[in-house]
Amino acid sequence: VKSVKALRSNEMASKGTAKTNRAAISAKRKRMGMGAADKTDADDGVAYDPQLLLVARDRVFIQVFEKQAGSLHASVSFDEFCACLELLEINNYDQDAAKKAFKEMDLEGDDELEFENFVHAVHGAYPKYNLCWIEIMTKKKYTHFGAMQVYSLDEIVSVLKNKASSFSDMMTALRCAANMAADPLVKKDAESKKIIIKLLPGLVQSLKHDNAFVVRVACLCIADIAKSKKGNLKSGVSRLLNCCWELFDHKAVLASYSASMLSKALLKYVPDDDENKVLKTLIQGTQLKDFDSVQRGCYDGIMVYLKKAGNPKAKSKPNKEFYQLIVKTIEDGLKSDDKATKERCYQCLALLEKANTKKAQLITQKFTVQQQSEFESVQNGGGIDDAGGDDAKEQEEDAKDAEERMPWEPDVSKRGPRELSRDYDERKEQLNESFDAYDDDGEGYMSTDRTQQFLRDLFEVTGQDADIAIKGLDAKMEGRVAKAKMMKWALLHSWNKVRKNPMLEQQGQQYGYKSSRKERLQERVDLFEKLKEIELAEHNYAALFDIDVRTCVLKYFIKQKQYK
Question: What is the pTM of this model?
Fold first, then answer.
């Protein structure tokens, strides 16, 4: 009887302990602004320890590490580390980079990584892994982890400014800095500004650190402060942006990528002053022709401001000078002989058009046909070179030369079905010859009737599929198809005939398909097939043409994955 009572007593005590633990976990999650626990959360509540979350910044790191190591207090070998990368859906990492990152973070030299150094090594193996940055840049509310404050403000500054500080001390100091300066409980602006001003020299020093892992955490720390305190960081934003631009050419990709993301966070969350000082600094940066990375970063910054200007929910609107500066910058850039500069200005113009149509019209109403063609190409996700064979410049040159040309006689022997090469360059040449054979007037166009024959003879595309292709290629309903457009379509639809297709590789990079896993690519194909049925019912040929192009790109990369 006594033993039964003892067992029951132990059981009740156990239940009481479990209940107490659950209450503690729930309180912790509530403080961190998190919802109720779900089946993917750790049972023992360790996964929600604010200190660990401050290191990981996303619970997925905790779950993946725990799955491989068995415990958050254990460690992972290199093979287990690589398995973690796979679980994080990082499939296209460089093996040598992974080994180097693992070795750098194996501070004890025992061929194993504990949790914190594992998180660092993940970003060393794949520097552009943006899970943390996605939350900072897209999640509306700032997540404060509320971890235990190890250092005082003076101690943080001392560690950050001391070049001899250890790696571990630097990491702890930076997390304490973010925890303190970004704390939402510090409501008074005067108190918040006082903390930020005192921390700023140390944060700047950490951005200049030789260790790229330190630079990454410093960037995240400053981004947290920018997102949480916004205008309170205004006095230091120019100095921080200059540090970011200096890092754009850093030899370590992790440092340069982190700096580029920090610059975007600063521009997104920290408002400019009434005199547009930051915007003017960005415009000055666009003039640095010998520093392409800085120039690119400054145009990216201007685009961030234009996106903010076009946000209908924005609390404040840009002043008159803002738009005057933007218009002049775009006009000056479009006069440049540098193709990259012109493309960036067209991208800015596309955003200006959404933010303020009237201001954009001040630029577009002066466009030549050539510039309009280039602008439309950039708007559609292409580049200046993609403006293609129907652009004004070529048309004007053709018109001038028309009278001087010899009478055109198409080589009709090249018409009809033919076996095309599986080599990309040879196939391109054959398609070029075939196009000329169907071009009755030799002006770089095929009539829609000839286009129908071309599709049937070379690609066996007929019926509804041919209608979709022709309506997409002749979007302006001129009764003819330009050579550049037809060649692009033909090379895209060679996805299953050519092993290495540069045209499809370029499109895949543009759409973001190149790095996707095979099953994700197939999911998109299935989704587009369902979408195709809807668009067919609506007779939406423009959408059907776009779906067809994207499906070609997807199927090409699915096939590429099979080769691997």
Answer: 0.58
